[in-house]
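P.,

For your records, the input lines for the assembly:
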Amino acid sequence: MSKIIGIDLGTTYSAVAVMEGDQPRILENSEGNRTMPSIVALSKSGERLVGLLAKRQSVTNPKNTVFSVKRFIGRKWTDEEVQHDKAWLSYDIQESSSGGVEVKMGDKLYKPEEISAMVLAKIKSDAEMRLGEPVEEAVITVPAYFDDAQRQATKNAGEIAGFKVRRILPEPTAAALAYGFNKKKDERIVVYDFGGGTFDVSVLEVAEDTIEVKAIGGDTHLGGDDFDKRIIEYLVKEYKQREGVDLSVDSLAIQRLKEAAERSKHELSTALEAEINIPYITADASGPKHFLIKLTRAKLEELVHDLIEKSITHLDKTIKDAGFTVKEINEIILVGGQTRMPAMQEAVEKYFGKKPHRDINPDEVVALGAAVQGGILQGDVKDILLLDVTPLSLGIETLGGIFTKLIEKNTTIPTSKSQVFSTAADNQTSVEIHVLQGEREIASGNKTLARFILDGIPPAPRGMPQVEVTFDIDANGILSVSAKEKKTDKVQSVRIEATTSLSKEEVERLKKEAAEKATEDHKKRDLVESKNNAEQLIYVTEKSLKDAGEKVPADVKESITKKIENLKTVKDSEDVEKIKSAAGELSTEIQKIGSSMYNENNENKENKPNDNQGAAE
Amino acid sequence: MNEKDEVKNQNEISDHSKCESEKNEYLEGWKRAKADLINYKRDEEKRFEEVAKFSVSSLLKEIIPVLDSFDLAITALEKNGMAEKGILMIRAQLEDALRKGGLEKIAAKEGDEFDPQIHESIGEEESEFEEGKISNIIEKGYSLHGRVVRPARVKVSK
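Structure tokens returned:
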């Protein structure tokens, strides 16, 4: 069974997503982009172009480049919208025999759904390329205000493109699905969608298993493109005033200015000031001229203030149409790239008195939500397949009372993890496995689940034996912990039931406690680790002094012994810095063992050139 | 066999076939999950490769306008006879560094057929060339590992 993809068929841009595991993911198109222009063209050489390629040739082929066809899909010729839009289009449209709209491209006439189908066909083949399998079914989104005819025409477009259209989904509903709000029963959601060319407001109400659209509003000719236009107009005017040159007649200058204006708009979403720096923008009798104007966020906001205000007026009206008060709205979702503008977010927040949701990329949220709907239809999001997670981390106590996590909290189960540990003392023949649950870094701060002992470890120096500890949680949350000594294969294990049965309150309490004690615990852990390192260092140094025996010069040996003594006295103190510096001194000092032995070895070589049995080799 | 036994038998058969179909459903689900994971890992690897290959594109997009400005500066200086070798060398140095990062110049010259795969038209003009051919290259185009970072901006003959 092939996957059901979710398609946001937009007025200016389209995007496509698919469920992967329990998360939707945007599929990049063949050009490597996450969105694609909803544009179709018949090139001068008679080739059909879709998306970015159609956009690239639009300036020189305006008659045969069809954009914004979504404005005509399923509409009657006599519709006010159609008559209004007809005036500013660069391509020709006319009335069809059935009273609908027909688009002229080349010598042929097309229905708007045939044009949309060309966009969808590219989406289909690009998605198949990405997924490496045929894609047959799709969920396609439409504006909430689309009537039956428009929805049916969109569905037809999908079918012409070769899809089985499983559902036509309103865009605001898709956005709510992407945020998982279909589970928020009885909540009321407002979707504020400020796209490139259109502005839509929708009020939704979540009922049992359904999301109902209660009211819709907006302006089909208000969008982010208007913001860009305002910026460019301002910059052209400003430059004319300063330099006396009209850039609007110079196509290269305007091209560079357009890009710079768009970049500065994006930059001003995070910075308070953007410098628009375009060297050699033009030239006059006196020589080349440059463009350098600072645009502040405040200036940008002043330029578009009325447009944002207009959107808030629509917002207010739509909520009233739905019969709700502002206080009755539970969630607000921002959709559309322009909502990245801080002033817009602030305006919405001020209106509602609470923060809108905008964690999901506003350009992609509708496609992602359509994919979620596809997943629900496919059964990927079936409740019985919902997998549990471990609410708290699981691990064991290690040297110095440290809690070493094997399974991190929020890991999806069933799962298993292994890690190899060793002994802390020479000739240690048994280890105690202390199984704990919790978030504190210090073992004693966490909940003990079990203790058991693995014995029969063959005597060996510390750090040599290998004990593999395995944690395994099955789908029912039952934890099995086993410890295996790798040389003898001796195993001990324990089974602990109900690791996930903690009450929600208990989990919250433990997490809160861990957060509160985080700094304190971290300090303690740092201290323990420094002590452990110090001990290890002392052990290794003493061992190598012993092994090297007489090869180490007496003065070196003496200075090292002194440093060891020093470290031994400070290691039991509570002063991390002192321990660390003493350990540092010792580790510098022990390098002398190596270098003195190396020198000696070299001398030996000089003395006895035929002797290849140097001690340090 | 009496009637009771037959009923019992039939119940057992239906229980059995229910178990059987459940088993198949679970096995199917398990296989699917395993396959999904294997496929996901493979896709993820591919995606990592792509990310590594194209992670510089956004930086390159920012640097390309600097190259444009260099071109314009050099043209302007040449006109006044002020183009110093040093400036040309700095430009070459910058281009060289970008080339090492994988950036390639898109070949485009006046008289070439306009190709939206690699060119973007920003205007039309009368010229000595046939209709539909490139009449003027306004800004150079660049690609990274075969993917267009910026198409060459051109004027097309009408």
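Two observations worth noting. Residues 576-607 of chain A form the longest helix (32 residues). The radius of gyration of chain A is 35 Å.

Regards
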